Amino acid sequence: MSDELVFYTNPMSRGRIVRWMLEEVGVPYRTVTLDYATTMKAPDYLAVNPMGKVPAITHRGVTVTEGAAICAYLADAFPEAGLAPATSDPQRGVYYRWLMFACGPIEAAVTNKSMGFEVPPERRMSAGYGCIEDVLNALEQAVTGKQYLAGGRFSAADVYVGSQIGWGMMFGTIEKRPAFEAYWAGLSQRPAAKRASEIDDALIAAAKAAQPA
Which of these, 15, 107, 195, 198, could form a disulfide with 55 (CB 3.0-4.6 Å)? Predict the structure, then answer.
């Protein structure tokens, strides 16, 4: 069983969230960059993730997919990085709550909005997230006046929630509310976040430079 940590991604994907998490963890990893039209749907990668989606990681004989799951896994696999409250800490519940809120209600609501879909008022009881207004109001309450979500310490939940807020505001799917801007402003200045962005931005630039004129 290999201890090598392999990261499958594309620099223009949710893999950027996991890249940030990996940089926070601070352990060596190998990046496999996949192309949407070819290698991401090739048999070799479908054996890793049958969905043909990124991000994914392999580590110690285990494959982990889904960004939030990868962030939670890395926090637990490398506890020395201090990226999750201890299992005996009540703040562990807060950590899980907002990490899963981001990959559940936030992800669903923002995706639907970006595609022009709005849940009819009479169907909101059937939708897990209700409506995007409720999701954003809950998120605003969670981050207002806070630097970090769980116990006053930076965690994997901040990586995932912060990324959702940062991207959402950039692409117009999340309103630029003062609480969101303040929360994201602090997270985006973390050295690991900057390193991750520089790595992925360089990959994008290299891919563009390699394209035929």
Answer: 15
How crowded is residue 12: how many other Cβ atoms within 10 Å of its Cβ?
A: 12
Q: What are the tens digits of pLDDT across the range 78-96? A: 999 999 999 999 999 999 9
CB-side exposure of 175: number of CA atoms within 13 Å?
A: 11
Rounded to whole angstroms, the Cα distance separating 204 from 196 reads 13
172 Cβ contact list (under 8 Å, min separation 6): none
pTM: 0.95
What is the per-residue pLDDT across 40-92, written as a single tens digit (0 to 9) for each?
999 999 999 999 999 999 999 999 999 999 999 999 999 999 999 999 999 99
Same domain? For 76 and 98 the reply is: no
CATH code of 69's domain? 3.40.30.10
Whether residue 1 is predicted with pLDDT greater than 70 in this model: the reply is: no
Question: Which of 82, 106, 140 delimits the end of a domain?
Answer: 82
Secondary structure element (H or E) that encloses residue 47, with its range: none
The single-letter code of the amino acid at 152 is G
Q: Is residue 48 part of a domain?
A: yes
Residue type, 106: I
Q: What is the mean pLDDT of residues 110-125?
A: 90
Domain at 100, CATH number: 1.20.1050.10
Burial class (CB in 10 A: 0-12, 13-18, 19+), 33: middle
Domain that includes residue 16, residue range: 6-82
> Both tokens of residue 49?
């993730």
Whether the Cβ atoms of residue 118 and residue 124 lie closer than 8 Å to each other: no
